[in-house]
Each structure stands twice: as C-alpha cells, then as structure tokens.
Write a structure and sequence with these properties.
There is one protein chain. The chain is α/β, with parallel strands linked by helices. It contains eleven helices and nine strands. It has a nine-stranded mixed beta sheet with strand order 1-2-3-5-4-6-7-8-9, with helices on both faces. Helix 3 links the parallel strand 6 and strand 7. The longest helix has 19 residues. The chain is globular and about 50 Å long. It starts with 10 loop residues before the first strand and ends with a helix.
Length: 331
C-alpha cells in the first residue's frame, strides 16, 4: 500500500522497523516548551480524502508506541469499510530516539499532568487539521485510559467516543500490583529512580539468549523495543517518575465524569488484571452495566493487561466492532 502523506502537525523521523511499512514514524513538536514526542501515523486508505474516522491512541506506561505496532497495524489493516487513519502518540521522553535536550523535564511534581497536556496538544492539532466530518476516537490503554478521560473532560465536543482498554483509571496504588510496588516505595524515590535509570543501559551488554530466556513468550520485535527502551536512561527515568505519579495522584473513581460521558465510553477488561483488581467492579456498578454489555466487555480468558506484546489480534477485532457500530450510528 502507499505510505501516504503525513498530516501537517507531524514531522517524519527514521525508524528501526523496516518490516512493517504500513505506518510512518514521526514526531510531534509541541507549541509549548514540552519539546517533542514520538508518534506513529497510519494514513487513511484513500489519502486523497480526509479520514472519516481518526483514531488517536494513548499508550500505557512505558509509553513507547512501538510496543503497539502489531495491534494498531491489525486495527488499520482490517478495518476496510471506512477511510480510517491512526495517530499513536508516545509519552514524552519515553522513546529512546527523541531527546528533549534543554527542554522541560518531567519533574517529580508534574510528570503525569505534563503527559495530559501533551496529549491535549495533539488532539487540538487534529481538530484544526480536519473537518467535523472526521470523527475522532481516542483509544487509551492502562493509564492511557485515565489520560483519555481527562481529554474527554476537557474537549468532549471534539471526541466522538473513547475506547478504554484494560483501564487503570482509579486507585492504582490499591490494586494488587500497586500495593506490591507501594510496599517498596523507595524504588520510586528520586534518588533510587535516578540510580535505576542510570544502570539499566547495561542490559545492552546481555547476550540475546539471556533476553529470550527471560522473556520467552515475547516476539522478537517486541524484545527489540524493550532493549531499546532499557538502553535509554532518560526513558527509564521518565517511566519510573510517571509510575510514581500514577500511584500518588490517581485516586477516587470520578463518578460524575463517568455519568456525564457514559454514552461515549467503551470499556474492555481482562478477566484477571492485577493493575486493576476490584476497581473493575466499581466501574461496572458506576456505569449500571452488566458484564458483556455493549459498552462493557470482558476479554477472553488469558488476555493479559499488557495485551500489546502478543495478544493484540482479539483486542483489535473488538475495537473494529465498536468502530463499525459508531459508523452506523452517525450515518
């Protein structure tokens, strides 16, 4: 297929993935002092027309959108009944290939909020670039779902729907994994974070068989993304700082926000997810929904929170079904 053209708000950069040519690697340059973030662009199938649906994807943590390439490529490739385009926005400083030297850093007191600000700038650029005929769907994974909720609160008029995949939107510190990490809170202290981030680059010296043994279920291309991430002290520090912010500041479930935007919200949960725990039932209750209802679904057994590593196909199929429903409802 044709590589298509980048929208005006994205600028091309080189990318290590020479196999999948369905997307273009790019960067988004902020109008504020935030520097640049990594982005991937899947062009509309008919590049001479504006997309009828544009998906803005917000990742979890670490916010390296390369982890989601198989999932997003499947979503784009198999959604053949509309002129679909996809922008995947990576979190600031999580991508090893972009260094915001001399720009605002992700200090301990604002690293999470700055990711919301960055996502909002991308959304505003999309709104300015396309007519109202282009429906904007925001898909957020894990803490990216929480960021998506903040975007919906600020610009619900611009967002047709929000797909929240394995959403970590409240009380992250009180989930099984959150309690585990909170019990070892020194790991997130500024000093320990900097020490950890400064030594993870040593993993590049590990032989390949050591990585494949440790992560035997991971596809080869995902192992490459992981090694690239760990080789960048800046990326590891940004991810650890953001994780600390998530557990400290993402607390009570925003019931008013759920109620206000209920028609636009679509939830997809794992049957067992230690980053969500009992919060899932609280969301179901708040939405007055039964499991396996139209907008509230449980994934098949065995699909993990980190679905993007090797379980993207079924999740992509569900997102495609939701997109089809939306297309029918807006025609």
């Amino acid at each position: 297929m044709s590589m298509g053209r980048l929208p005006s708000f994205l600028h091309p950069i080189s990318h290590a993935n020479a196999v999948d040519s369905s997307f273009i690697s790019a960067q988004f340059v902020h109008s504020s002092d935030l520097g640049s973030c990594h982005a991937l662009w899947w062009p509309p199938h008919n590049d001479d027309k504006h997309p009828d649906i544009l998906v803005l994807f917000i990742p979890g943590n670490p916010g390296v959108v390369d982890f989601y390439i198989p999932f997003l490529s499947l979503l784009h490739q198999n959604h053949g009944t509309s002129n679909l385009a996809i922008v995947a926005r990576g979190h600031l400083d999580h991508y090893f290939g972009i260094k915001n030297v001399g720009k605002t850093r992700y200090q301990d007191d604002h690293s999470l909020q700055v990711q919301v600000q960055s996502s909002m700038e991308v959304l505003e650029s999309i709104v300015k670039s396309y007519t109202k005929k282009t429906k904007i769907i925001v898909i957020g994974h894990s803490v990216g779902a929480w960021i998506t909720m903040q975007m919906l609160q600020a610009r619900s008029d611009a967002i047709t729907a929000a797909f929240l995949l394995f959403p970590a939107i409240s009380n992250i510190a009180d989930t099984p994994n959150g309690r585990l990490f909170s019990a070892n809170e020194p790991i997130f202290s500024p000093t320990v974070r900097r020490i950890l981030s400064s030594v993870t680059f040593l993993t590049v010296y590990l032989p390949e068989y050591a990585f494949t043994t440790l992560y035997s279920a991971w596809p080869k291309e995902q192992l490459r993304v992981l090694r690239d991430f760990l080789s960048s002290p800046t990326s590891v520090l940004a991810a650890l700082s953001m994780a600390y912010q998530e557990m400290k500041y993402i607390r009570d479930l925003d019931l008013d926000l759920l109620e206000q935007h209920k028609p636009k919200l679509y939830f997809y949960y794992a049957q067992k997810d230690d980053w969500i725990g009992e919060e899932r039932q609280r969301v179901f209750h708040a939405m007055n929904a039964e499991e396996q209802s139209l907008n509230m679904l449980l994934a098949p057994k065995g699909i993990p929170h980190a679905f993007c590593i090797s379980h993207g196909e079924l999740v992509a199929q569900q997102c495609q079904e939701w997109l089809q429903q939306l297309l029918k409802s807006v025609k």
